[in-house]
Amino acid sequence: MSVTTPLAPTRRVAPAKARILETAITRFYQDGIRSVGVDRLIEESSVTKATFYKHYGSKDRLISDYVDALALRAVDDFDASASEASTPEELLRAWTDHLVDYVHGDTFRGDPFLNAAAEFADPAHPVRERITEHFETMTERFAGVLEKLGHPMPGAAADRLILATLGLEAWSYTGDVIAASAAFRSAVDGLIAEAATASR
Questions:
Q1: What is the pLDDT of residue 1?
Q2: Angle, nearest 10°, between helix axes 177-198 and 88-103?
Q3: What is the pLDDT of residues 89-128, one digit of tens each?
């Protein structure tokens, strides 16, 4: 669930505001949300303090936009893969390749949504609610693909794919990226094989 794809907003955004958000996307992911202060964001965004507060008003609003941007990019990445794939299996394999490449990247620091959730203990916090909403959206996307693939239990299979994805990212960051990637590919192969068996 990459955080590196350029943001493609649906409406025009002031350059300074976009620059602040891009800086936050990098710094919050690399260094942690709470450890990055407003002064650092202002300096690295090359904006004035007045400009920062004009566009965001507070760090909390920027954090909200950060999580929204992560969610938009992840969905856009998946939808882009879907538009290029000719079959559901091709889509799953392309998405697998995308994620494996992502976790092997030099800037990979774990799953950005889990990282953000870990900084907000209250499950009712807006950040946590937005992250939950994102995972529900991705689960629906996966279930739709698995249904087209012919999996007999696409909803349950989608849950397993989400779990495998998070496992890939967690193990790649804290353990063995090669083993994690191989296990993830095996999990996806298993889902595809289950669909093929059910279709016979």
A1: 58
A2: 170
A3: 999 999 999 999 999 999 999 999 999 999 999 999 999 9
Give the whole-angstrom CA distance, residue 82 versus residue 109: 26
Residue 66 phi, psi dihedral angles, 5° rounding: -60, -50
With H, G, I as helix, E, B as strand and everything else as coil, classify residue 189.
Answer: helix
State the Cα–Cα distance between residues 143 and 184, nearest whole angstrom.
17
Count the Cβ atoms, other than its own, within 10 Å of residue 43: 12
> Which residue pairs, CB below 8 angstroms and at least 24 apart, start in 65-69?
65/21, 65/24, 66/21, 66/24, 66/25, 66/28, 66/33, 66/116, 67/113, 67/116, 67/127, 67/130, 67/131, 67/134, 68/130, 69/7, 69/21, 69/25
Percent of the chain with pLDDT over 70: 94
Distance CA 121, CA 9 (A): 30
Under the phi-then-psi rule, with left for phi > 0, alpha for psi from -120 to 50, and beta for the rest, what region is 137? alpha
d(CA 72, CA 3): 10
What is the residue whose two structure tokens read 């794809």?
5
Burial (0-12, 13-18, 19+ Cβ within 10 Å), 153: middle
Which one-letter DSSP state was computed for residue 119?
T
What span, in angstroms and rounded, lies between the C-alpha atoms of 74 and 29?
Answer: 14
